[in-house]
Amino acid sequence: MKLFYIDESGDTAPLENGGTKIFTLAGTVIDDNDYQAIEEPLRQIKQKYFSNPDIEIKSNFLRYANPMIKIDSPLKLNLKEKYDELEAEVTKLLIDIPVQVIAIAINKTGYWRESPSGNVYAHAYEKLLLQFQDYLIKENQRGLCVIDPRENMGEKHYFGNEINELHERLRHIKNSVPNIIEKLLFSESHQTIGIQLADLYGYPLFHIHEYNKKPSEYWRYSETTEIKLFK
After folding, report:
1. CATH number of the domain to which 182 belongs
2. Phi and psi at residue 151, in whole multiples of 5°?
């Protein structure tokens, strides 16, 4: 069984309301047989640096853990040397663990030009699930989807049941994702390392598109995310 943990970077707000240019959905695929072997070393890193194996590690928390950056973070460290060690250990973990990353990046202006009343989140989610289906066919596996119910600028529940209904429509009416089982499951990121990993892999993809960078210009992308992408 393949577990697909999904998180977003960017937001779905209009640009004139302070929204990002890009919206991304990224999912980390973890084989259920590998989950504990992935979870335990990440918990050890959390225990080593924060004396709390359950603390949440996400991209923005990790970036701002750097004591040289004057922005608060739940992971803030007092010494730059410790921060560098933490970065190195997390990076090595992201490189070494047996996961695959599937991601979709949407240019919101271009999307709304074609679909003025369209739902960016729903559009990205449908594209992501179709990619996951391709992956499951390739691996001859079944898959289960877990998503964070929160969004940066609001609640995903703001969309009502639209995302869940889309998930079920793709499964049962369109029958376009037959390898995906069960309804869409929700779990907040602090409750599962799968979604934390989706954020750690997904933000660098958002970053290079949002800030018009080449892949090689952002080490977090080139060293971790890019090598895990399912293409």
Report:
1. 3.30.420
2. -130, 155
Q: Cα–Cα distance between 226 and 53 in angstroms, integer?
A: 27
HEC letters along 47-99: HHHHCCCCCCCCHHHHHCCCCCCCCCCCCCCCCHHHHHHHHHHHHHHHHHCCE
Encoded tokens for 66: 């750097």
Asked, for residue 211, whether it belongs to a domain, the answer is yes
Tokens of 104: 């979709």
In a domain, 116, yes or no: yes
Which residues have CB under 8 Å from 82's CB, separation 6+? 49
Spatial CA neighbour of 24 closest among 87, 94, 149, 108: 108
Q: Does residue 122 lie within any of the structural domains?
A: yes
* DSSP tag of 180: B
Task: Using CB atoms within 10 Å of the CB of residue 12, give its burial: 0 to 12 exposed, 13 to 18 middle, 19+ buried.
Answer: buried
Number of domains composing the chain: 1
pTM (2 d.p.):
0.93
CB 47 within 8 A of CB 21: no
- Asked whether residue 108 is domain-assigned, the answer is yes
Alpha-carbon gap, residue 42 to 48, rounded angstroms? 10
Mean pLDDT of successive 10-residue stretches along the chain, which has 231 residues: 96 92 97 96 96 94 93 94 96 98 97 94 96 98 91 50 90 94 91 96 97 95 96 84
Q: How far apart are CA 137 and CA 179, in angstroms?
A: 7
Residue owning tokens 């047996």: 98
Please give the residue range of the domain that contains residue 20: 2-34+98-228
